[in-house]
Structure prediction request, 606 residues.
Amino acid sequence: MSEDPSTETAEETRGAYSWIGKNVTKPDALEKALGATEYVGDMVVPGMLHGKILWADTPHAVIKRIDTEEAARVPGVHAVLTAADVPGSNRFGLAVLDQCALAEERVRSVGDAVALVAAEDEEAAEEAVAKIRVHKEHLRPILTYADALDPDAPKIHDGGNVFQHTTVRKGDLDKGIRESAAIVENAYHTHRMDHVPMEPEAGLAYVDPSGVLNILVGTQYPYRDRRQIAPALGLPMNKVRVIQAPIGGGFGRKDDITAEIHVGLLALKTRRPVRLVYTREESLVANTKRHPMAMNFRTGAGADGRLTFLDGDIYGDTGAGVSLGAYVIKKAGIHATGPYDVPNIRVDTYTLYTNNLTSGAMRGFGVMQAAVAHESQMDQLAHKLGMSPLEFRLKNCLKPGLASSTGQLMNEGCGIEATLRRIKDYMSARDLRFKRPEAAS
Amino acid sequence: MKQRYVLRVNGRGMEAAAEAHESLLDVLRENLRLTGSKKGCNEAECGSCTVLLDGRPVVSCLVLVPDAADRDVVTIEALATDGVPHPIQRQMVEQGGVQCGYCTPGMIMSAYALLLDNPDPTDDEIRFAISGNICRCTGYGKIVKAVRAAAVEMKGQAGNGGAAS
Ligand code: FES
Ligand code: FES
Prediction:
């Protein structure tokens, strides 16, 4: 801040009304540092039962029969539930309702829940889960992009395994190719990734005296949870209350349904409060992940160092459920050019169902995967043209007045050029240079 | 079969009926209702369950109750005295070392054990001391800063004849 307020810059004035750049103490930080914050797994209510899930242990199968009698006889067990016990639609999903709270005739991934148990303690619940017998007939699992694209492969959902195809088109691709002095073409693969929030998923549910199903959960989105829980359990919206509990990290995955429907169903059926806490292993096996993507990119630049075109295909593996995959993978396509001005573009994306774990939102939402491809392409093009990778980016980066791949005009929020210049100054002040790794033999 | 175990937790004798295969973490959380120690993995990977056992930091999910009997256990709940947060707790808040907070109690216990042993640690020593504690939110930088600031503050208190808790 300037000493004399009359010389305050516009930025400083704006700063006085903004939290950005200021230290703000989180209101709940002290309680957390004292160990006093109660996450759902820390909560206990009188009469509480413990819930456990039987997960499918196979990626693709037809369920013939489920035997629960032996499990129900374990002392302390109050309920053993399968899809037949669900009073509502049993469906959930953020883009489309393509996931079953409890598997019906089909198992579509190892992360599918098949049955639920509520018992007096966790040991009894675990014992009962181990005694449930699922008779199934295995189907050929669809695990690769090629399998999912094969029109003769078994369909995971009725509509086929290509859930969505999106396109980005700009300019004249052939013209871009003709004007190129250098072209690089590569295939990139990114892997499935778990968010690993430190708090494994958990929920606590009870039916209150007015008949409202209350669900405490560390969620990112209580209202959207309710919108999915109520129809799945056959309840009117005003009979479901989702209470946001402290959340021990989410990073996108707790945008989706986690323990809500399961713990809610157990509470409805037993008329007792029920707590359900995932183990770390369950957290890794179930719930959404970051999408693995396969990206084939061909990118060109002219002799002047200006990008000429991008020609690319992106295949995203959304697993057995779409979750937010349709948006994530579409977004990877929109961001395939990165923060660069590319005049001629053809990009196609494909959202593919597989029998892998369902993928959904994770920090970056598809942009990270695309960055692996576009930044590698930038480095390789710069090398081919004999330019510094920094100068090459400066020459091509989006600036106010230029438009993105989808025609969005850049305005003052476009900071890539300033960022690159700061890097340039930093490097030249320290005499730092980019080194290209030795080519692998 | 459940047996009775006598534990010394936070300076007080406590009894718990538990199976011999139960972990100290489960007994702290479920029997004694001390839920400040968290269960991030239950297999000694994450450090969120860290407590002090006879002055040494341990992952309590890997300590069987019989092995903790008649030994001194200190948990996060004991760090504040008379409602006054420990300097590590306060600095974690002030330096922004707390986000979702799930790793925080275990992280603080590891730092507390370090400062008991080494009141003037280098950043490398701090990083080593918390290397068994995973934090998915903060990126660790602010946690290291908080521990350093707490060490400075505690040295100041000790120099003034104040109680360095
Ligand atoms: S719960 Fe003990 S180390 Fe993770
Ligand atoms: S603050 Fe969230 S894991 Fe550390």
About this structure: Chain B touches chain A at residues 29, 33, 35-43, 45-46, 48, 75-77, 79-80, 85, 89-90, 92-94, 96, 98-105, 108, 134-137 (CB under 8 Å). Residues 3-78 of chain B form a domain with the Ubiquitin-like (UB roll) fold (CATH 3.10.20.30).
